[in-house]
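Issue: copy button drops trailing tokens. Both records pasted manually instead:
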Amino acid sequence: MTSLDDLHARATQLSADAAQLAADVLAYQAHQIVPLPKPPPEPPPAPLVETLLDGPTRLPPNQLGLSRGEIAEAWYGSPSQPTGFWTTPTPLDQTESVGTSRLRQHFYTAGRPSGSGSTWGQIAAPFEDSADATCEIVCEFPNNFDWSPTGKVGGIVAYNGGDWPGGAKNSPANCSARFIWNKWGSEPLWGMYVYSQPDGRDLGQNYKYDWPTGTRWEFLLGPITQGAPVKVDVRVELGAPGAGQDKITAYVDGDERWSRDDLYLLEEPGMLNRAYLSMMCGWDGNTGPPSGYTSMFLDRMKITRPMEA
């Protein structure tokens, strides 16, 4: 007969065996459990922006020569033209619609005297006054584009009365920042063309043009891709007038190419308020014009500004 002491000893052993088994099971499970990878961190939220102007759309399809009203409808949805809207020439006789949302700008250069511009298409489209705004342009230079030494595409303008900031003129409450091309070397390069205030500094990059009523600067941004649409953006942030704290940042296909935050864009109070297409090409007396004509395409000119979250 089993004694109580034997039974107690067997119960104690069974309890110890059970505890060991539980420990072994836990150890086995710990070996088998593979920690799940941590999810990647959430990207920062995209900045909130408000669209102030966007086009072209609703163009009369496949038409050479566009009236000022047709251009206004392509950006504003109505042929009614807001105050400050203009085109040069009127009508845009060498601007052609491709479908209903693309423009083709022809540059007829044959027979033009050296030192003059070619035919051109200029559009000044007002938007709501802003101290911080970005102009996005989507354009294309075909593979057979006949480059002149220089030419303009467009950008953003502060116009608050007085001289328009272009054509070698400017006024204290005005400025402009436009994309241009430069073909003085072996390949065409993007440039940022800035009309600022004459603050007496040499900004130390590329070219400087001084005029009695303003200062023009050109900053080179790198090669131009041909044969496919390219997106260029210029953001202008105005500080206090005359403080030397204005900022311009230029992007090509999302890549920041140039930025400065020590510019004197305005001497007197003013706001950014015009999108400016200035599609034109020119040359100097040393090179002469290309022959015949060439053309570029415009798919978009859009203005946005930051919104508070």
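Record 2 (pasted manually too):
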Amino acid sequence: MTDWARVIENKYNREHSLVNLIGVGAHPAIAASDLKIGDTIVYNYGSTGKVTAIEPTGRVSLNVTVLARDGKEYTQRKRRDTLVPVDRPKRS
């Protein structure tokens, strides 16, 4: 397989990735590097949090600040290639 074919295959797999969440089941996920402010992250048992800030902390990681349902803000360090389950509106 050529390098270009691997790039296309990886991009396809990343766009169509699923993460298995406890109490929810398979859920669509994106790479942390593709997160945007306003995205809703889904956690186990259906808990959610809204992304309020994203700061790069180096070549391979990000600090993602999430506003939880209880009103508290939490900062999570994630690698850019980590799959993060999100709820995004469907595009028409």
